[in-house]
């Protein structure tokens, strides 16, 4: 195991005191350290938002792109260099709102990346508006009469779309979070992990204790995450009856790179050797 | 001597295939060819045609007057016979009832059926056409065998022969020498340029008229061991390409105006992150869906100003299939050298116009990446956005150098790529990025000039207007009219040297463009303060041909 200190960034952290992001960041560093990964071997990709600042607060490669657009560059990076570990850290608005289409098709494409969603059911950086996961009726700084829309059932959506690794964890349970992240990163394919986290400033309903009282670990039950129908039922469990954390669904699938012989067997695209003369033969088509 | 043949019919009747076969045979015989397509946004039916112009001298543009019409349906004959010269020939099936003494009715469908292939009717017509032009069988069989499976090749060849035997020779036509040439359109040329220049990743979403660039690359991806990915939308296309480019692979995307609109936010991301990228905008008429299968030069303003904020970029319009190949390889090198976006402007006319040109010289293509190795970086701490004299910061591949990480950010950032709110850092970073404009200016290629040495009339055009204007200038010069033309390829940064020289000589400056507002003229005013005196514009979705430009200059200018 490498020392977690090698992941420390010199950047000043702009998160609010008490934010769930801090424990997610610490868990991420511990996970990478336990997996013996060096900073240059990892890319943290993100969109825009508070969670999306994660790449700045950890000493690895980073791609802090546009709002909602974490998934496309993350896929491009992995396709270009299969030796890199590519992990997305972004919020629920970024991942499920503006980035919804990319997530859907990212799942279909099944590039071997991990997508960690900081799930706090509210918009933080823009100061307290509803996110795609905000509960119906939840009053916000924009939805004064409460959110009119149904919250997206994110994990159900992911399973239904064909995601091969669907999990949930909680920022208040570091041990569980590290274990889940490790499994997600080791999984070969698109791994989606919702991490429940309180927003101490803007979400006064789904607080630390609200989550804490409801979550229960599937790992301590006889739940079988390979049964897809069971998994879809499990993914629908939410609220006062309990919120399951752990691996909700897992299935081995061929990854994008596995499907391309020369990428699977050969070098990464970044190491491809090419001379312009190699393309000269393609001119034959035009003679 | 140049001849002009039109092949028309409904979508699904195989006009495209027939056109390609005829062009291939003529190309191998040594003719110079320029052909262009006119088709509708539908899969079956409608009216589509290909016009093939060929001769013993180079052909640069399409031409309105026809020598032969091959009509696979009645509409073709009705629509186009007005443009057929008096002693021209119409070849059509016996079932098409039309009163015109230029018609040669052939039992095309019947013959085709005799050989068990009702789709070979077009080949009967092609055979007839070859006989009419006094051509021989040479090369026909080999082209058919390359294009089709054996059985289909045989039935088409037999149908061709049957058509050939059915008609009499009509035109006297001098024969060309065989020459080493290729027959290609600009989209394929761009794809070939991308392959030559080592593009490793290409992400795109199908959109006419850009789609065939991706199709060509997709056909070659296994052989070239590259990745061509059809993505969910153009937003993903450019963001994914930026990701791959960040990782160190030469990356590219292509689209038309609507898709380019979706890419604009990410073009701005490119501006601040300085990840090299080449984007092709194959223009079609807008606004919105506009004319999906037709042509326009309407996106120049948009492309020049696309992307919020200020950042360096380069815009290059390609002029023809020969230029498209070399400009693509050049664009990719410039993008890497200055870590900028290079936009290649082309359009439907060029995408669907095939042309005979000398084979590309692959030994002229260089792949220049400007990516540092561990040894080149040395022992210094790596800073992705280190300020430098020319504004270009050191680029490395993430994951390749232990101890060095690559951080890029869409926020304003410091030299490490981390978010900043500092006024000083902001100013320094803006200055750093904008300094790259000086480098881009040093790369500028001046426009092509042709025509009279001291022109009284100076025509100004860009991109795909090259061919039509070139022929129009030749015709006007033959009429002893003092005309010259500057055709711009590089549009931003804007080349001014030749423009200043010729605009001082000429009495009249006329911009000739395929748009409503005269966007080149505006760019010229903006960059040089030079006003054009008159415009020749067209925005009906159909490329102006040389004859139209020639006639409009005579009517509107002289």
Automatic annotation (TrEMBL), chain A:
CDD domains: TPP_OGFOR. Keywords: Iron, Iron-sulfur, Magnesium, Metal-binding, Oxidoreductase, Thiamine pyrophosphate. SUPFAM superfamilies: Thiamin diphosphate-binding fold (THDP-binding). It comes from Wansuia hejianensis. GO terms for biological process: cellular respiration. Residues 51-195 form the Thiamine pyrophosphate enzyme TPP-binding domain. This is 2-oxoacid:ferredoxin oxidoreductase subunit beta. NCBIfam families: PorB_KorB.
From TrEMBL, chain B:
Gene3D superfamilies: 3.40.50.920, 3.40.50.970, Pyruvate-ferredoxin oxidoreductase, PFOR, domain III. Keywords: Oxidoreductase. It holds the Pfam family PFOR_II. SUPFAM superfamilies: Pyruvate-ferredoxin oxidoreductase, PFOR, domain III (SSF53323), Thiamin diphosphate-binding fold (THDP-binding) (SSF52518), TK C-terminal domain-like (SSF52922). InterPro entries: 2-oxoacid/accept_OxRdtase_asu, PFOR_II, Pyruvate:ferred/Flavod_OxRd, Pyrv/ketoisovalerate_OxRed_cat, Pyrv_Fd/Flavodoxin_OxRdtase_N, Pyrv_flavodox_OxRed_cen, THDP-binding, Transketo_C/PFOR_II. GO terms for molecular function: oxidoreductase activity, acting on the aldehyde or oxo group of donors. This is 2-oxoacid:acceptor oxidoreductase subunit alpha. It comes from Wansuia hejianensis. The keyword Oxidoreductase applies.
